[in-house]
Amino acid sequence: MTLPKFIITMDGYFRLGMVNQHRDLLKPGDQCIGGGYYHFDFVSNRILLDRESYDFGRPKWHLLESLMVPSTYRGMRIVYSYDDGFHEDFHVSEELNIEYYD
Known about the structure:
five-stranded mixed sheet; two-stranded parallel sheet; 1 helix
């Protein structure tokens, strides 16, 4: 069953799509540093991220200075919710430099 999943790579690429497994979003040579699930909040123009990849764990945001985001999502804010009672939400688009790619 395909679900809305995302990954981040060591090179700073943010990839998302409807896939069976997080690894389906990898390209040859990628090193994944975490992933999870997403949904769109069009009312507030945000991409909401949460949970974690079974294979790769939670996103390791601290390893990145910038994030390469598909240009389709230009202007949308990205927020990751740890949802664990310990961590505050991580406002990706405020904490990291966002660059867009086609």
